[in-house]
């Protein structure tokens, strides 16, 4: 796969510093039952990287020391980690909001039949990937049959109270090198289409811009569209989004416990570097920072490693794991 990382290092993106840290986003491993074209993690059924029980305990120690309020679990399919349920229970017992970034189809896989009931019992918030309400677009992006499986899973979640008493958000990613449409209008379309066709309800639609890294970035390079896409991101830059980018209140942890300013920097292998001057990814090559190195550190005010891909979070209406910023 072609690598965009060297092209992202030198950047004129504005300097950023972290505000109050309230969210820990944790990648529990790259194992997944799907191989989606937009996946910036390169997850798939053949990946073997999974977070260990020891690292899970280190996560919980960090949560206790740093006063984390929200645990955002991602992957791969985070539910395929054998310690997923233990971590969810431990976090909920501590009063944290737990978000499961679910691909929906995992709920139908053999061995995971009780997963939806578990998530409901633990009152886990679900952010479910459904990159379009049209069947053809979803199957092109995620694989044959994925759309119908996703519909079945959403109906099962609705039956458990998701979309009503339990939070259920859907996640949209563009099926190509363009920005998401306005989130409110697209959400209205999603709600009417899914309700009228399948009786499905959900709370919010989160629109997320495709990042020019990993699998999607490699596709751009192979088709000669990388420079054009970067030009789109930069020409659509909005300074109003800087105050709300997710890295200002979040840090990302990989399956080994190493820490990054965001999930995208994790995929570029640009580690969080306490004490460095805010700026571009040219500082890569320094030793990685582990979760256990930060137990006694104040995260607020630390500089954030940035690069050209950061324009993806600030383009147009903005983009974060919580959807549009403006």
In brief, what are we looking at here?
This protein is of the alpha/beta class and 326 residues long. It has 11 helices and 10 strands.
Give me the CATH superfamily.
Answer: Aldolase class I
Low-confidence stretches: none
Structural class: alpha/beta
Say how many strands there are: 10
CATH topology: TIM Barrel
Q: Averaged pLDDT, please? A: 92
What is the count of structural domains? 1
What is the annotated CATH architecture? Alpha-Beta Barrel
Give the key terms.
326 residues; alpha/beta; TIM Barrel; 8-stranded mixed sheet; two-stranded parallel sheet; 11 helices; 31% helix; globular
Describe the structure.
With 326 residues, the protein is of the alpha/beta class. The chain has a single domain, classed as Aldolase class I (TIM Barrel, Alpha-Beta Barrel). The protein is built from 11 helices and 10 strands. The strands form 2 sheets. It has an 8-stranded mixed sheet with strand order 6-5-4-3-2-1-7-8. Helix 2 (53-66) links the parallel strand 1 (23-27) and strand 2 (70-74). The radius of gyration is 19 Å and the shape is globular.
Secondary structure blueprint with pairings:
Layout: H1 5-8, E1 23-27, H2 53-66, E2 70-74, H3 84-93, E3 97-102, H4 115-121, E4 125-129, H5 135-142, H6 146-159, E5 168-172, H7 183-198, E6 204-207, H8 214-222, H9 226-235, E7 250-253, E8 259-260, H10 263-268, E9 279-280, E10 305-306, H11 311-314
Parallel strand pairs: 1-2, 1-7, 2-3, 3-4, 4-5, 5-6, 9-10
Antiparallel strand pairs: 7-8
